Structure formats: structure tokens, C-alpha cells
């Protein structure tokens, strides 16, 4: 039995129908769930990820199977897999990651994948130029990743890059874009509050009220 089918049987054996209904409702009934709590889910495949990490090779065919499954737990598994294998995920793999971003898209998996892209950016400066391009794309989830990929960079955040990306994304009523802008600015305000305060002052008329409200939380 291949790894995907083995994990599917494992998920099925630990499913919780009642919790699955609640989890699906939380996600606007867009996805099916097995109903496995996050901690329990990660524990189920802990040994599997350890064995995969030992191979030092990303199994992209397996990840495609995870994204092809209708149960959301498999997309969460794909993220945890990519995080475990981050040393072996490189710039050349971003086209495949982009496909995952645009597959079964919603904030939960997209925000996970923005961290995967961010991990690559920490090792390869070519990602920065690519994110500028992504910030100009029509797909809101691709734009959201461009905004958020530096979310965990703290003092290593490139403010010039951040400013240009946000400016490329202004002028929309899209909630997930405006929320992401505010979230990113809020996180950066923890290390450079004066920069964020000045950015808000300079672009107040163009920024959505949601973005300003989120960005100003710690100011």
C-alpha cells in the first residue's frame, strides 16, 4: 500500500464525524473534514514525516495526491510535510507551490504556504523579485502570499520590498487582501513601529480602513 492510501486509512480510523461537521462549518462548508484535531492529526503522521525527512527528497507526486483529496486534513499534512522538508524545498519548486496555492484555496492553506515561500526567500534572494510580480497578479491568493511571505522575518523584513508590494495591492475592496496588508504591517510594527506609523500617514487615503485598523493595533 502506498503512503497516501496508508495515511488515508489512518485518518479514516481516527475520524470524528461530529467534529468534522463543526470544522467544515467554520470553513464556510467549503471543505470536507475527517474531524481530527490539529494536535492529534500531527501526532498521527509524526513518524511518517520523520521517515520522509530522512530521504532528503521531496515527494511532489505524494503532495499532489494530498491536494487532490477532498479532506482538508490532507492539505494540512502537505504543509507540515513541506515545513519538515524545508531544507530540500528550493526556488525551482515555487511553480509547484504556486499550483497548491491556487488549489482548494482559502486563507488557512494559503497562509501556511506563504510561510513555505518565506522559508525559500530566506535562502534565495530571487524570491523577492518574484513576489513583486505576484503582487501584480489578479489571483487574490497569489497576491496574499506576496504580502505575507515576510510575515515572520521580523528585523530581517525588507521595508522597501514590503512598501512596493503593498502599494501594488491597494485600491481593492477584497477582504483577504486588505486584511493581509494590515496583518503584515501589524507584525512589522513590533520591530519598527515608526516605519509603520509613517507608512500609514503617507498612504492613509489609499489604505482600506480594515488595513489601518489591523496595522495600528500595537501602535
UniProtKB/TrEMBL annotation:
Pfam families linked to this entry: DNA_alkylation
Gene3D superfamilies linked to this entry: ARM repeat domains, Hypothetical protein (EF3068)
Top-rank taxon: Bacteria
InterPro entries for the chain: ARM-type_fold (IPR016024), DNA_alkylation (IPR014825)
Protein name: DNA alkylation repair protein
Organism: Enterococcus columbae DSM 7374 = ATCC 51263
Amino acid at each position: 500500500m502506498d503512503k497516501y492510501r496508508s495515511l488515508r486509512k489512518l485518518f479514516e480510523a481516527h475520524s470524528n464525524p461530529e467534529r468534522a461537521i463543526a470544522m467544515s462549518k467554520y470553513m464556510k462548508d467549503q471543505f470536507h473534514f475527517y474531524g481530527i484535531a490539529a494536535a492529534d492529526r500531527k501526532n498521527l503522521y509524526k513518524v511518517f514525516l520523520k521517515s520522509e525527512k530522512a530521504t532528503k527528497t521531496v515527494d511532489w507526486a505524494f503532495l499532489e495526491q494530498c491536494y487532490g483529496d477532498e479532506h482538508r486534513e490532507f492539505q494540512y499534512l502537505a504543509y507540515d510535510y513541506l515545513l519538515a522538508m524545508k531544507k530540500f524545498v528550493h526556488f525551482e519548486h515555487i511553480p509547484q507551490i504556486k499550483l497548491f496555492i491556487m488549489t482548494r484555496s482559502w486563507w488557512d492553506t494559503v497562509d501556511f504556504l506563504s510561510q513555505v515561500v518565506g522559508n525559500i526567500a530566506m535562502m534565495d534572494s530571487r524570491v523577492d523579485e518574484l513576489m513583486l510580480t505576484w503582487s501584480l497578479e489578479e489571483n487574490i491568493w497569489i497576491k496574499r502570499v506576496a504580502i505575507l511571505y515576510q510575515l515572520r522575518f521580523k528585523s530581517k523584513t525588507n521595508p522597501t520590498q514590503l512598501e512596493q508590494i503593498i502599494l501594488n495591492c491597494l485600491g481593492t475592496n477584497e477582504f483577504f487582501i486588505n486584511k493581509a496588508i494590515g496583518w503584515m504591517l501589524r507584525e512589522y510594527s513590533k520591530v519598527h513601529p515608526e516605519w509603520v506609523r509613517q507608512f500609514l500617514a503617507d498612504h492613509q487615503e489609499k489604505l482600506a480602513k480594515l488595513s489601518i485598523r489591523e496595522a495600528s493595533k500595537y501602535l
